[in-house]
Design the sequence.
């Protein structure tokens, strides 16, 4: 049998307003620090500028970019910078070939060959004019140098990419990360491939 002393009052500790403000301030500071760490080391937000990745991505699409532990792979869409174009101007492009691979373009038939095999590229729109700007810069075939990748936009006739001296090969050190998600506009929300 349990006896209760009904005459004793239970004291409930009341918090002072300054304690409540301090707790909210502490939560705010920890949250800001977590967001800072997340977007500095793990992931970033990028915005598409232009139509070079159309139809996969459109101008002003907002993207989530994975940074940590990323290893460049053929077919990945990346955010990168080019020493030739300017390190203050991020580019959104698709990796066509990685270091040591050879690239050849069949301009008339809109085919890209990597190491002698044609790429399957269902994401591009084949145009009525051939892809431009290749032989005058590279000749028939090129090999991607060590530590670099060869990138192109999906909109092959409206993309400043590795085919141009203004961009050239992308040094892997200047790859910001892999595009993994489009979060705006809402009608395009989802993973990016």
Sequence:
């Amino acid at each position: 049998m349990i006896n209760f002393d009904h005459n004793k009052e239970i004291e409930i500790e009341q918090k002072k307003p300054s304690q409540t403000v301090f707790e909210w301030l502490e939560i705010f500071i920890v949250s800001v620090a977590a967001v800072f760490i997340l977007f500095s080391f793990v992931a970033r937000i990028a915005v598409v500028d232009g139509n070079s990745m159309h139809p996969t991505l459109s101008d002003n699409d907002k993207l989530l970019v994975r940074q940590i532990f990323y290893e460049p792979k053929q077919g990945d869409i990346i955010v990168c910078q080019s020493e030739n174009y300017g390190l203050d101007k991020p580019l959104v492009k698709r990796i066509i070939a990685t270091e040591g691979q050879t690239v050849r373009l069949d301009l008339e038939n809109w085919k890209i060959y990597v190491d002698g095999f044609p790429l399957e590229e269902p994401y591009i729109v084949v145009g009525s004019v051939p892809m431009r700007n290749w032989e005058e810069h590279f000749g028939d075939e090129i090999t991607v140098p060590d530590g670099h990748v060869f990138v192109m936009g999906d909109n092959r006739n409206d993309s400043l990419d590795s085919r141009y001296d203004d961009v050239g090969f992308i040094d892997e050190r200047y790859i910001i990360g892999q595009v993994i998600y489009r979060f705006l506009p809402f009608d395009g929300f989802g993973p990016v491939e």
